[in-house]
Amino acid sequence: MAQTEPDTEELLELSSDTRSILERHDLRPLWEVEDDMGTTRQDPEADIWKWEDIQSAIDGIERDVPIADLPPGFQRRVAVPINAPNAISNSIYVGIQTVSPGETAPSHRHSANALRFTIDGSEDMKTVVAGEEFPMENNDLITTPQWEWHDHVNDSDETAAWLDVLDLPFVLDSLNARQVFENHELERQPVTKTQGYWDSQYGRGRPADEKSDGSIPGPFEGNREATPPYRFGWDEMLESLRQRAENDDPDRHDGYSLAYVNPATGKEPLFPTMSFRAQLLNEGPTDAHFHNATEVYFVIEGEGATHVGDEALEWGQWDVFVVPPNETHHHEPDDEAVLLGMTDRPVFEAFNLYAEAEPSS
Ligand SMILES: [Fe+2]
Ligand SMILES: [Fe+2]
């Protein structure tokens, strides 16, 4: 087993066009970020990445670099929004990954928890996790819990794109610790489970003969119930969100909000380090608040603005933005909008350190 993060070697040649798009929009290719990890930013500010800028960057990277040419290690073709030295925040990493038709992002596993949120996918774009092929259809969220093998296989005839979200900077930057990482001996791990297996074992029934002891895979120890590999299909999530909007009152700060739960516990957080919510905003501006946790947002649909301090982050579909710790913020949708909200709040809550308040008017 490799006990360190992968080595990346010489920088790959990106065309000057692609290089300047990346620099102009505060994006970096993943394979250039990895080696730099280990530093934090003291005073992160609110920021937004517009989808059209992300799109031109990932198109350029896809044009310039086949996955097979990437250095050994994280063989992933990813543009990384940068607002801390090596990620969008000091705790949560977001990247936008593409896999071209016929390509495979080879199998590996690591200590960081990860998930995929599909931006542009299809049933023939599959992320293979723990022996099962999970189809990546638009807005599906699929977990890659720590130390599970995972590869991404595009058997469709269109390029697929998705959001990767990992807790990498929490360990590598904020704790200045090491990543545990291993490449699979095969490019594609063997598919050993039928499709739907992992999904079928959580929810209305659990295996009766094998009680989960919550043990954590790999060489890790902890006291949290491990998160299983799992696909949250978007149709079901959206239906649950709409049922909330029909029947419940919205949260004053986050609208109608539905947490992605750890299927093993039925509760937040999805991972011990990161929590995720689908948020429906359709009743005008939310009330302002501030907290010590960071929030990262992906716009699933709709347009609007999030006001952070004196700044208005104007967003549209597929934009990514970040609300740094302790900044007063509220959301203002133009009409109806759906956001994916991501936060490191579970880290604060684990130590009874989470704090939230409203500004005095
Ligand atoms: Fe990975
Ligand atoms: Fe907030």
TrEMBL record:
Entry-linked Pfam families: Cupin_2 (PF07883)
What InterPro entries does the record tag this protein with?
Cupin_1, Cupin_2, GDO-like, RmlC-like_jellyroll, RmlC_Cupin_sf
Q: Could you tell me which residue ranges the Cupin type-1 domain spans?
A: 239-359
- Oxidoreductase: present as a keyword of the record? yes
Q: Which UniProt keywords apply?
A: Dioxygenase, Oxidoreductase
Q: Which SMART domains match?
A: Cupin_1
Single GO molecular function: dioxygenase activity
Region Disordered: what ranges? 192-229
Alphabetized PANTHER family for the sequence: 1,2-DIOXYGENASE PROTEIN-RELATED, CUPIN
Q: Output this protein's name.
A: Cupin domain-containing protein
Organism expressing this protein natively: Halobium palmae
